[in-house]
Write a structure and sequence with these properties.
CATH superfamily of the largest domain: HAD superfamily/HAD-like
Number of domains: 2
Strand order of the largest sheet: 5-4-1-6-7-8
Shape: globular
Order of helices and strands: EEHHHEHEHEHEHEHEH
Structural class: alpha/beta
Largest sheet: 6 strands, parallel
């Protein structure tokens, strides 16, 4: 856990987006990653499922079984933002229960909100804007996927940046085992919310520091846990 001897200003919550803050429904379950590959004439394994928790880069690698030339993959990665913008226009975005209230309540308790996601910086910014919550997040604390990134690398980059800042503690909030693993490797406490593709029992087996059904039903547990970290 990051802690500082010099008078810390507050704590930081690094939120995942998909499955944690926002539910996205794509027409016909369309995937921007698959669309990019199809438009460029690349084949992918249609049987690949269960990509929750993967970064945008890792999704491309999983779909192509790592067999796509890295230079070609780089071009596809760059085209992902534009394809996502197109698809976003015909998709439905909803906040999960309790998100708005949690963001405001925790902010009033002194927590600063950031993002730790497998989405590219442009994709993460677009999603926050579409659902109208972008102003809740510090612009300096938006950690997303660059080409070649795993979730562990993104978390490490966040840790390196935050280690130079004057925050009391940093906590990751996510909905997948990947969030737990990345947080553990960077020595961050981790909270899991079972609003994504993983159930309470599945997430429990990965031993997060706190497990919530959702941000509304377990709001008191969330607030009490975060208070305990700053005592």
């Amino acid at each position: 856990m990051l802690k500082f001897d010099s008078e810390p200003s507050t704590g930081v919550l690094l939120w995942d987006i998909d499955g944690t803050l926002i539910r996205i429904k794509r027409p016909n379950s369309s995937s921007p990653h698959k669309n990019v590959l199809l438009k460029r004439g690349h084949t992918f394994d249609p049987s690949v499922v269960g990509l929750s928790g993967r970064t945008d880069f890792e999704v491309f690698q999983e779909l192509t079984k790592g067999e796509l030339d890295r230079n070609v993959l780089s071009v596809a990665f760059k085209e992902l933002d534009e394809e996502s913008r197109r698809l976003d226009k015909v998709s439905t975005f909803d906040l999960y229960p309790g998100v708005q209230t949690a963001l405001k309540t925790l902010s009033s308790m002194g927590w600063v909100h950031g993002i730790l996601t497998g989405n590219t910086p442009n994709r993460l910014a677009a999603k926050l804007k579409i659902v109208g919550i972008e102003d809740n997040f510090s612009k300096n604390l938006l950690f997303g996927c660059e080409f070649g990134d795993s979730r562990e690398l993104i978390a490490r980059r966040a840790r390196e940046f935050l280690s130079l800042q004057n925050y009391l503690t940093v906590v990751v909030v996510g909905d997948t085992p990947s969030d737990v693993n990345a947080a553990r490797l960077s020595d961050f406490p981790v909270i899991c919310v079972a609003t994504g593709n993983f159930s309470v029992s599945e997430l429990l087996s990965h031993k997060p520091d706190l497990l919530l059904r959702d941000l509304s039903a377990d709001a008191d547990s969330l607030e009490n846990f975060l208070r305990s970290l700053t005592l």
